[in-house]
Amino acid sequence: MVKVLIIDDEEPLREAINILGDWKGLGIEQVLEATDGKAGLAMLREHKIDLALIDMKMPELGGRELLQIIEHEFPELLTIVISGFNDFEYTRQAIRSKVVDYLLKPVNRADLNAALRKGIDMLEAKRKKESEFISRNITLNMSLPKLKEKMYLSILERSFKNRSNEAFLPLIGADTPGNYFAAGVLRVLNLEQVRKERFHGDRDLLHFAVTNVIHENGDGHFQSFSFASPKTEREFVAIFTMIGGYGEDAAFLSVHQLKKVVTTLKELFGIHAVGGIGQPYKDVTDLAQSYEQAKVSLDGMDLLNLKGAVVRNGPPQRPQAKDNPSLTGRMPLIRNALENGNTSHARSVLAEFTRKWKSAEYFSIGEADRIVQEFIILLNDIAMDLDAVPERLNSGKDKGLRGLGLGGDFASFGEFELLLTQILDCYAAGIGKSLAGDRSSVLENIKAYIDNHYFENIKISMFTDKYFLSREYLMKLFKGQYGYGIHEYVQKVRMDKAKDLLSDPQLKIQDISEMLGYKDKNYFSKAFRNYYDCSPSEYRILLTEGEK
């Protein structure tokens, strides 16, 4: 026996639900009504209710507060919420409470009965004694869509086992011979922009809206189901099921439905999306192959000529060029520029590559995604070597684009270029900040080394290799700090020391020359004359005359 409770303060809406619901067909034996949230809570405490339909906007005790109470007091209760389309706060609570479905006012017959069917299916699934796997692994407040999502993911990942999962097959229509299954991939090109502007920054709410649109684009003969991809931030997986019919019809309807979804998302939320569709198959486990085809079709779209809402099936129009230039070989130049604090030069190296990609006849979305990930890895390796990983990545759990605080949207090649520049700037800032604190100590170490080893053959390459700095940049830093170039400072230290040693008459000029690291006394004498305008011997005579 199934008991349903309608909780709504509007009598016309309660009457409409009573009239539109296919109670007998769904096997629902008793339908109760409550005139507001408080009355509904009292009836929940009095009766054993299986499924409650709750209006989110009610006086005194509203739907949001009621759902919070239900989570604690009635964890087994299944709920369907009813609200206006733009009530974001209500929708957020519905997501958190894991409701069976979310109905928009005005409620229509098809949506109401589809939601009720979900609830009944869930009740039946939980009540099946023979399905020990379900009762053991599904918490009572898990919704049927989440279960279906897990099933489809196991199929796409090729880990689904027919025998051990046989009890689940009816939930996805895989127990009926003659059905066709196809997979699609939908990519939202402006996800971060829409999330901030239209969904108050709530990622879960955006996901809920997109998947709802995909679910609603179906009927009894052709069904749609979707979920956010767990691997790729901007992508949604769509599963299309055609009840009976022919494979050609399933292929046509899959493309048609995804195009319809793309158009609806643009009209309702300003979401720009493109999609790829795989071939339909009779065996549900072949969805993995269909998904891979859809991915290839989507990733193969030409970013250089991407215009409008595009949905494609089949392989890309043109294969990616094998000789596309790679950033890997140019990373030493970018590293050198970043170490030298020359971000503009690093940008110019990057711009050189983006110009090459842009001048090509074809550049795919998949290639752009790969380059973004590769660029982050390469820059992160440099930053780790320099102990200069950006603070956002060190302090937070998120890595990649989200960890850098970047959205990652790009709907054109120009936006892709901008994203790469933003990634570079993030790392440049982190490296610059870290190295700025080290420069002073580096220069002090170099000066101290010269002061103590002036008699050795000192080469600038000793310091550039040790501190990973370019010769030009190191010379510029040292002169800016001490007023001398490195060679000039070595010469100064030697000449200052030479004057001290020449003041000791017991030391021969040849000995002094060797103590200062010169090859012979003639070379030393020449260097001394160039520096002080007199020879070492003349300087000694001047010292002696001065003492007299």
Q: Can you tell me the CATH superfamily of the largest domain?
A: Reverse transcriptase/Diguanylate cyclase domain
Sheet with the most strands, sense and barrel status: 5 strands, parallel
Residues in helix, %? 55-70%
- Which architecture name of the largest domain does CATH use? 2-Layer Sandwich
User: What's the pLDDT, averaged over the residues?
Assistant: 85
Overall SS class:
alpha/beta
Number of strands: 10
Question: CATH class of the largest domain, anyone?
Answer: Alpha Beta
Bulk shape: elongated
Strand ordering within the main sheet: 2-1-3-4-5
Question: For the CA atoms, what is the radius of gyration?
Answer: 36 Å
Give the helix tally. 24
Domain tally? 4
Here the CATH topology of the largest domain equals Alpha-Beta Plaits
What does this 3D model show about the protein?
The chain has 4 domains: 1-142, Response regulator (Rossmann fold), CATH 3.40.50; 144-316, Reverse transcriptase/Diguanylate cyclase domain (Alpha-Beta Plaits); 328-431; 488-547, Arc Repressor Mutant, subunit A. Helices cover 56% and strands 10% of the residues. It is built from 24 helices and 10 strands. The protein has helices spanning 11-20, 23-26, 37-46, 63-73, 88-96, 109-127, 132-137, 144-156, 191-198, 203-216, 247-269, 287-299, 331-339, 343-359, 365-385, 391-395, 400-403, 413-453, 460-467, 471-482, 486-502, 509-515, 521-532, 536-547; strands spanning 3-7, 30-34, 51-55, 78-83, 101-104, 180-188, 222-228, 235-242, 273-277, 311-313. The protein has a 5-stranded parallel sheet with strand order 2-1-3-4-5, sandwiched between helices. It has a 5-stranded mixed sheet with strand order 7-8-6-9-10, with helices on both faces. α4 (63-73) runs parallel beside α5, α13 (331-339) packs antiparallel against α14 (343-359) and α14 (343-359) runs antiparallel to α18 (413-453). 32% of the residues are buried.
